Each structure stands twice: as C-alpha cells, then as structure tokens.
Amino acid sequence: MYTILLIEDEEIIAQKMKDFLEGWNYKVIIPKDFKNILQVFLDTHPDLVCMDIVLPFLNGYHWAGEIRKISKVPILFISSIADNMNIVMALSQGADDYITKPFELQILQAKIQALLRRTYDFAGKTLVLEHKGLRFFLKKRVWSLTIMKLN
Q1: How many angstroms separate the CA atoms of 120 and 126, rounded?
Q2: Residue 102: is the preceding peptide bond cis (ω within 30°)?
Q3: What DSSP designation does 118 have?
Q4: What dihedral do alpha carbons 22, 28, 31, 32 form, nearest 10°?
Q5: Does residue 48 come out as left (phi exceeding 0), alpha (psi in the -120 to 50 range) or beta?
Q6: Per-residue pLDDT tens listing for the chain (151 residues)
Q7: CA–CA separation, 4 and 22 (whole Å)
Q8: What is the phi/psi pair of residue 57, to 5°?
Q9: CA 113, CA 123: separation in Å to the nearest integer?
Q10: Which DSSP category does 124 fall into?
Q11: What is d(CA 69, CA 75) in angstroms, rounded to the nearest whole number?
Q12: Is 34 in contact with 80 (CB distance < 8 Å)?
C-alpha cells in the first residue's frame, strides 16, 4: 500500500480526495498543522506528495523546495492557479506533475498511479548494476569487469 501525503487546506476538497483515494487502496495522510509540513513529511515517509500551492503560512513552492532538498519523492501540485507561469514555477521547484482545479478524481488517480509506477515499479527491477566498469548481472548471478584505459 502506497502512502500519499495530501497537503490541501480546504477540508471539503481534502476529504473528498482522501475518500476517493482510499477506495483505490492508498493510505492518505492529511496534515492538521500547516506550519511545519516538512516535519509531517519526515514523520510519515510518504511515497507521493499531493500539494496545493496556496496554503496557510508558507506556500507549496516553499514546501516543494524543502522536500526536494532531502527527497526525490514524487510531488503532484493540485491548484486552482492555472496560468502557465505558475505551472512552470511549480515544475521548476521540483514538482513532477500539475493538475488544475476543478478536476475529475479519475484523472487524479491516473496521474498518481503513473507517478508511482514510474518512480517505484521500475526502480526495484534493475537487473544490472554497474559501477566504474564492474557489472553485476543480478538475474544470472555473474559479474564482469571492463578494463578501461585512460589517457
């Protein structure tokens, strides 16, 4: 089961999203305290963060930047701000995707599923590890060494 940290200060929207995503077997955590989102992130170890831009105290851009300093967890911005400048800014601050409100919950679920698949499903299936010319073929349980001559 994947854990999603849902950082949305509009309670009705947050609860609707939580109910829908829990129906898809996600564990959804909604913070009560918007003063220290980074601590909530550290305490909950989410697999994905869904975050609004407009939040009490500090905005989503700030929190995305703080999360990116310590983690590569996927971040999906969800916001009613739909202009190109804000979308570009969100992506440049470390977001992996962006959805504008209003949106269909099925689209949200599909984007979450795609982000999780790209981030986690393939990460654990690496069959060849390589470091400085030394290759380990995990499935075959063999290794090879490539000698490289440097000029």
Answers
A1: 11
A2: yes
A3: I
A4: 30
A5: beta
A6: 889 999 988 899 999 999 999 998 899 999 988 888 989 998 988 999 999 888 888 888 889 999 988 888 999 999 888 788 878 888 888 888 889 888 889 889 999 999 998 888 754 444 555 555 565 655 555 554 555 555 5
A7: 10
A8: 75, -80
A9: 15
A10: G
A11: 13
A12: no
| Residue 96: DSSP 8-state | S
- Global pTM? 0.75
In one letter, which amino acid is 31?
P
Half-sphere exposure of 42 (CA within 13 A, CB side): 8
Other beta carbons within 10 Å of 88: 11
**Distance between CA atoms of residues 91 and 79, nearest Å:** 13
Cβ neighbours of 136 (radius 10 Å): 15
CB atoms under 10 Å from CB of 69, counted, come to: 8
The secondary structure of 18-39 as a DSSP string is HHHHHTTT-EEE--S--S-HHH
What is the enclosing helix (H) or strand (E) of 111?
Answer: helix 105-116
| DSSP code at position 125 | G
CA distance 120 to 122: 6
